[in-house]
Amino acid sequence: MSCAPTDHLLRFFQQQSATAYLIGFSGGLDSHVLLHACAGLREHYPHLAFRALHIDHGLQAVAAAWVEHCRAVCARLAIPFAVAHLQLQIPAGESLEAVARTARYAAFSQHLQAGEMLLTAHHQNDQAETLLLHLLRGSGVNGLAAMPEVRPLARGYLGRPLLACSRAELATYAKQHGLNVIDDPSNQDSRFDRNFLRNEVMPLLEQRWPAASKTLARAARLQGESRQVLTALLREKLPHLHGSKPDTLAVSKLLAEDVAMQKALLREWLTLRGFRLPEEKKLLQVLRDVLLARPDATPCVRWEGCEMRRYRDDVYAMSPLSVHDPKQVLVWETRQPLVIASLGRTLVAEAGYPASVIVRFRQGGESVYLPQRGGHHSLKHLLQEWGVPPWERERLPLVYVGERLMWVVGLPVQP
């Protein structure tokens, strides 16, 4: 049973707690070797459960034949098989490579079960190519660490057990076991960046430096170790920078750090919050326009899937605000929950609500009677006193009985 791919898999599985694995199976050489080697391990490790998922990108005329080929391979190996069909739409300015990758991993995420690990057949040469791609994009330590061996994905994990295995070792395994593999002609199209590196650049580098792929992959691994150390240090530091509100950072505490540390802390904070990291230019804009803004300003810097805002000494990272009409008026029969579609929010009546109330949103000039504070008070001044950020104020549901404002949902306003 001893050979390079199998040996790498054995070491990998011995380090994992997962027992259920979803194999990304394209039918090409790399994924076929991964599938075949995993199937061969079941005799000695019967507690490991494997199933396969083929992604049909809908880009090749022979895609249906590839699906049936993969189905037949899995049937022979007694591995459960499923297929996901994609319909790719390429937005203007986007690359087919990037769109296909995003859609592929979205499909994997949808099929991945809780605690299950997706296995892909990325190998040493892929790792070297990934490092070069990130170098050419001007990436920092996260990008130069290239592909981690294991990372979280959806409800489970993504594992790459063959990163230390070369393409040549996989080809030797395929030849020894007589594997019938799919040859995707798009892999020869050097218009795609990765194919250009694989077909044009790496052969030239390996003429001069025969161990180029192995050396580059080692550099990526060392960068990964540096990233782990940096991540640990940043996560130890972040709790000391919390702002006055949940999920915020204090601007004054960030500004006490040097610029390099500010950038690293913000990147790690955004990662922990689940947001896509901004490009360097956008991150510098955050430092300039958000952290250095006047204390009474309310700046906002946006990128895909995220907005960074500031109010007073707190910096916020949030999903983009939905379109909301603050002029809408809603009649609420309080026996039933009220769905406010524009806010993605559902209200449930508290004790003391009448059977029917009106829900409005702030227009300006509202006042509310607070008996514990001796009379009517300006809602504007109360919101300022309670530190409600300006962008949230017109999104707070105001509950009226007749023309009298009785409750501000989520705030300590009582009749």
From TrEMBL:
<dbReference type="InterPro" id="IPR011063">
    <property type="entry name" value="TilS/TtcA_N"/>
</dbReference>
<dbReference type="Pfam" id="PF11734">
    <property type="entry name" value="TilS_C"/>
</dbReference>
<protein>
    <recommendedName>
        <fullName>tRNA(Ile)-lysidine synthase</fullName>
        <ecNumber>6.3.4.19</ecNumber>
    </recommendedName>
</protein>
<dbReference type="Pfam" id="PF01171">
    <property type="entry name" value="ATP_bind_3"/>
</dbReference>
<dbReference type="InterPro" id="IPR015262">
    <property type="entry name" value="tRNA_Ile_lys_synt_subst-bd"/>
</dbReference>
<dbReference type="InterPro" id="IPR014729">
    <property type="entry name" value="Rossmann-like_a/b/a_fold"/>
</dbReference>
<keyword id="KW-0963">Cytoplasm</keyword>
<dbReference type="InterPro" id="IPR012796">
    <property type="entry name" value="Lysidine-tRNA-synth_C"/>
</dbReference>
<feature type="binding site">
    <location>
        <begin position="26"/>
        <end position="31"/>
    </location>
    <ligand>
        <name>ATP</name>
    </ligand>
</feature>
<comment type="similarity">
    <text>Belongs to the tRNA(Ile)-lysidine synthase family.</text>
</comment>
<keyword id="KW-0614">Plasmid</keyword>
<dbReference type="GO" id="GO:0005524">
    <property type="term" value="F:ATP binding"/>
</dbReference>
<feature type="domain" description="Lysidine-tRNA(Ile) synthetase C-terminal">
    <location>
        <begin position="357"/>
        <end position="414"/>
    </location>
</feature>
<dbReference type="Pfam" id="PF09179">
    <property type="entry name" value="TilS"/>
</dbReference>
<dbReference type="InterPro" id="IPR012094">
    <property type="entry name" value="tRNA_Ile_lys_synt"/>
</dbReference>
<keyword id="KW-0547">Nucleotide-binding</keyword>
<comment type="function">
    <text>Ligates lysine onto the cytidine present at position 34 of the AUA codon-specific tRNA(Ile) that contains the anticodon CAU, in an ATP-dependent manner. Cytidine is converted to lysidine, thus changing the amino acid specificity of the tRNA from methionine to isoleucine.</text>
</comment>
<keyword id="KW-0067">ATP-binding</keyword>
<keyword id="KW-0436">Ligase</keyword>
<dbReference type="GO" id="GO:0032267">
    <property type="term" value="F:tRNA(Ile)-lysidine synthase activity"/>
</dbReference>
<dbReference type="GO" id="GO:0005737">
    <property type="term" value="C:cytoplasm"/>
</dbReference>
<keyword id="KW-0819">tRNA processing</keyword>
<dbReference type="GO" id="GO:0006400">
    <property type="term" value="P:tRNA modification"/>
</dbReference>
<dbReference type="InterPro" id="IPR012795">
    <property type="entry name" value="tRNA_Ile_lys_synt_N"/>
</dbReference>
